[in-house]
Amino acid sequence: MAETTVSSDEARAPTNQTSQLYERMRAAILALELEPGRPLSERGLESAFGASRTPARAALARLEGEGLVQRSGRGWVVSPIDLGEIRALAEYREVLEAAAVRLAVQRASAADFNAVRALLEAARPADEEAGVRAGGDFHSELARLSGNEFLTAGVQAAMTRLARTRWLEVRTAKAREAAWREHAAILEAVATRNADEAARLVTEHVRGTNERLIASLSAGHQAFRARGLAIVPEGTN
C-alpha cells in the first residue's frame, strides 16, 4: 500500500487558517464590529469568514482564553461587557502595575526608559483609536520594564479584556491629554528611581480611569443596550 505524504504547506494550512481567523475575529470583537452578546456558531463562522470547522473551533477556543467569547448552550457568544469584571480588573491591575513599576525602578536601564518615553511622545497628540492603542501599549511596555514575564503577561491580558470599552474614557481630546500627562508622570517617577511615587501614581491612574469608565458605562447603559450591546450590571453574577 502506497504511503500518503503530506507537504509542509498542507500541514501548515489548518494552523495558518486558525491564526488568520483568530486575528480577524479578535480585531472585529475589539472594534465592536462583532458586538457584545452576539451569538456565534462554528457553521456561521465558516460562512462569514470562509473558514472550515476545525480552525473555527480552535480560533474560538483561543478567544475564550482571552475572555472575548464564551460558551452559550451548545454554541458561543461574544462576551458581554461586564461592569463587575471591569472593576475586578482594575483591582487586579493596581496590584500588578504597582509591583511592576517597583521592579522597573530596580531593573530597567536608561535605554529602557528612553524607549518607553519615545513610545509615549509618538502617541501625542492622538485620535480616539490611536489614543486607546497607545494607552494599552504604554501599560504593557511599562510592565515589561519590570523584567518579569508573568507581570507583563498579566497586564497585557487585562488590557485586552478592557480594549472594547477603554475608548469611552479617552473619547475627548481633553481626556486623552489628561491620560497622556498621567502616563508621563508615572514614567518620570520610574526613570528617577522613585519607587513609592511611581507606585502611587500608577495606582491612582488605574483607579481613576476605572471609575470614569464605570461611570460612562453605567450612565449609558440603556443607550448601549439600544445599540444591541450586551452590558452586565454590577452585582448580577
Describe the protein's architecture and organization.
The protein has 237 residues and is mainly alpha-helical. The protein folds into two domains: 13-80, Orthogonal Bundle (Arc Repressor Mutant, subunit A), CATH 1.10.10; 82-228, Four Helix Bundle (Hemerythrin (Met), subunit A) (Up-down Bundle). 69% of the residues lie in helices and 6% in strands. The protein contains ten helices and five strands, in the order αβααβββαααααααβ. The chain has helices at residues 8-30, 42-49, 53-65, 83-107, 110-122, 128-144, 149-162, 173-191, 195-219, 221-226; strands at 39-40, 69-72, 75-78, 81-82, 231-232. The strands form two sheets. It has a three-stranded antiparallel beta sheet. Helix 4 (83-107) packs antiparallel against helix 7 and helix 6 (128-144) packs antiparallel against helix 7 (149-162). The protein starts with 7 loop residues before the first helix and ends in a 5-residue tail after the last strand. The model is unreliable at 1-13 (pLDDT under 50).
